[in-house]
Specification:
WHD_Rv2258c, seven-stranded mixed beta sheet, three-stranded antiparallel beta sheet, alpha/beta, 48% helix, transferase, 2 domains, Rossmann fold
């Protein structure tokens, strides 16, 4: 067996640099998992609000076990996320780091996104088998998918609806104030519809999703707060022929996962009244791999896609387009459906997604 290190073509420096990079990869992967844990436990929120805490004081404020907390802090300190004063035995989250790691930082809270690493890892065994068989998955395989997706959507879409997203459609805010019928296809957790229903009481809002458990908590919240202009319905949109007529239909990060994306878009087109508008958010990558090489989010997006998007679509008998189906493909699908005038927008608050405006 030939020792490749003796091959004159073999670049020792390149090999060492690659090995060093993967040491960093292992450490960054570990940091991502522990960042997710810290987010869920409220540790970054407690650190952001209080500088110079001992582990005992932080444990009391966050309501966690101090022994486990010390191990977590070890990760954060050696990763350069948290600073440590050995004399005072105290820990501080620099404000520049807190600006991207605590709940008050939304929509810039990257700790929210680290949760997708755990979601992807939860189906590793199932996906290993699917790599061999080509079969798909159903949502029941995923640990916390709806919860994490709802939180991610809350800061990228819901929190920016009024300020950034609605204004890309001229006159839409005024129409919502006057009163129109709105539907969200593939509404997931339903937080977007809840926010709009609160902000625009004269309009009527409908959320449709395959999984009732996805929007159950939001539906209960709306009922508890007496919000009467919002309703949710569990519905398989891939087989529905008609769901009513609307002035505005939205779809946030939903189309590429469908069993029949073309049929899904055709249903949306049929559901819009004349003069209505379709507003779609979806991953803003390219279908051409070479164009995604410089995208700083591409490895994460391809990972989430590999472990969720094609398997969910294939599991429903769909084509498995994947999250990186591309802006080019999305625009082609919209045009083929009958949306003859499509505008594609990139918004400063959201570096991951593209926003499409398609009137009928």
């Amino acid at each position: 067996m030939t020792d490749q290190t003796q091959d004159p073509i073999f670049d020792d420096a390149k090999a060492e640099a690659f090995a060093d990079r993967f040491v960093g990869t292992l450490n960054e992967a570990a940091l991502a998992v522990m960042t997710s844990l810290g987010h869920r436990a409220g540790l970054f929120d407690a650190l952001a609000a209080n500088a110079g805490l001992t582990s005992e004081a932080l444990a009391r404020k966050a309501g966690v076990n101090e022994r486990y907390l010390r191990e977590w802090l070890g990760v954060m300190v050696t990763s350069g996320v948290v600073t440590y004063d050995p004399k005072a035995r105290s820990y501080t989250l620099p404000p520049e780091h807190a600006a991207y790691l605590n709940r008050a930082a939304s929509p810039n809270n990257m700790a929210v996104t680290t949760q997708f690493i755990g979601v992807a890892a939860s189906v590793e065994e199932a996906m290993l088998e699917r790599f061999r068989t080509g079969e798909g998955l159903c949502y029941g395989y995923f640990d916390r998918f709806h919860e994490v997706m709802a939180e991610d959507s809350a800061q990228l879409a819901v929190a920016s609806l009024a300020e950034a997203i609605l204004p890309i459609v001229p006159g839409l805010t005024e129409r919502l104030e006057d009163g129109i019928d709105v539907a969200d296809f593939g509404c997931g957790g339903g937080q977007a519809m809840l926010r709009l229903a609160r902000d625009f009481p004269n309009s009527r809002f409908h959320g449709f999703d395959l999984c009732a458990d996805a929007f159950a908590a939001t539906d209960a919240e709306a009922r508890a707060n007496g919000i009467e202009n919002l309703r949710f319905e569990a519905l398989d949109l891939s087989s529905a022929q008609s769901v009513g007529k609307f002035d505005l239909v939205t779809a946030f990060d939903a189309v590429h996962d469908q069993a029949d994306p073309s049929g899904f878009l055709a249903l949306i087109h049929r559901s819009l009244r004349k003069g209505g508008m379709f507003l779609m958010q979806d991953i803003g990558g390219s279908r051409d791999l070479e164009k995604n090489i410089g995208n700083p989010f591409a490895p994460l997006l391809y990972t989430i896609s590999s472990m969720h998007c094609p398997p969910i679509s294939i599991g429903q008998g769909g084509p498995g387009l994947g999250a990186m189906w591309g802006v080019e493909t999305a625009e082609e699908y919209l045009a083929a459906t009958g949306f003859t005038s499509v505008e594609t927008h990139r918004l400063p608050h959201d570096p991951i997604n593209a926003y499409y405006v398609a009137p009928v």
